[in-house]
Amino acid sequence: MSSTYETPNAQVPYYLPLQPEVLGKAIEPQPDNKPIPKLFQPLSIKNVTFPNRIGVSPMCQYLAGSVSKDGKAENTFLATPYHFVHYGGFTTRGAGLTIVEAAAVSAEGALSQKDLGIFNDEQAKKLKEIVDYAHGNQAKIGIQIGHGGRKANGQPIFIHLEQTIDKSIGGWGDKIVAPSAIEFRPKGNYPVPNELSKEEIKRIIKDFGLAAKRAIEISGFDFIEIHGAHGYLITEFYSAISNKRKDEYGGSFENRIRFLIEIIKEVKFQIGDKIPIFLRISAVDNDDTTNDAWTIEDSIKLAHIVAQEGIDLLDISSGGNSHNQSRRGTKSFVHHEYAKAIKKSVGDKLIIACVGAINDANKANQAIEDGDFDIALIGKGFLQNPGLAWTWADQLGVRVHQSLQYDWGFHPKISQIVELIERSKQ
């Protein structure tokens, strides 16, 4: 009799067990017949069903690229075996969804020389190796795509939080762009960016669409997330702090969100209506020193508009666009109230994901049970523990399906040994 262990896994060109169940899915019925907490109930968006509501938040690793034959680093923006191991750890252990770190839609839009890119087919093909492994585990995986705007061309954050790369070592400071020629921090390390022309704006919009198309058609990702947060190019357009344009892309609220709306339309045009599209935004600028700051009221208004434009999930974060932003300190669930306010307004028009120091399984489940948001996205928790979804299941007393190669050590088939012992006594 053939078992799943012996069945070839068509997703990958090497041996990998064909998992009999979706990893991270709650076993039904539960061994004790208890109801399944909503955190571990599945959620469907279009053609994709996530087995639980615990997601890996996109987190830049700044480790992409190649090494030349003479041993020098090359800025190819290609995924490496590091990324395969990094994301494989999450998709082997039952995360409900994994969002791959921000991939640049163009070389000049990369946050650093070591960012992932998805502006050519070779980059997309390397990412496919990660996707195929995830799908071999029946896991769901998407990718965040973005443009750094005036915060592009930076050093990896683990080297310096706010320092650009010199042109002598491959930097492209003269090509940094933004809605307006306003630097991030006066007398800071980021240079004054070049104000985008309308022709350049149209090209970048196209870049987003083509990046999404590669991600779906070449890499095979299950969904796309547009990065519209943290002071990168999209944020720079919708926040009046950084957008002082006098044309149709600046001034009024409607004009400042135009760039984002046109990106959404282009992405949807390139990948169609069947693929889920996520959008991450900064719900507020966290800057009380100016009336130009983006507010929660702005985000609520935007949420209704992007829902009509085809966004399926709104991912709620904050800040990153003002050097005067207030510090959030060590508070947990830092964006909970923003996510709750938006969810209360939009209801079922949008799935709402919340990120930001979500570090307690019971609190996360209660927030979802209460309808404050729909998905918990966790960053540092997964870095510390790739099996966080499994850990949270244990904390909530939920049995979930795990991989064959891991689960046997926790739930050995004792009955098989008992049978052999009894047989030996005969």
From TrEMBL:
Keywords: Flavoprotein, FMN, NADP, Oxidoreductase. Residues 38-393 form the NADH:flavin oxidoreductase/NADH oxidase N-terminal domain. One of its GO terms (molecular function) is FMN binding. InterPro entries: Aldolase_TIM (IPR013785), OxRdtase_FMN_N (IPR001155), YqjM-like (IPR044152). This is NADH:flavin oxidoreductase/12-oxophytodienoate reductase. It comes from Hyphopichia burtonii NRRL Y-1933. Its cofactor is FMN. Coiled coil: none annotated. It holds the Pfam family Oxidored_FMN.
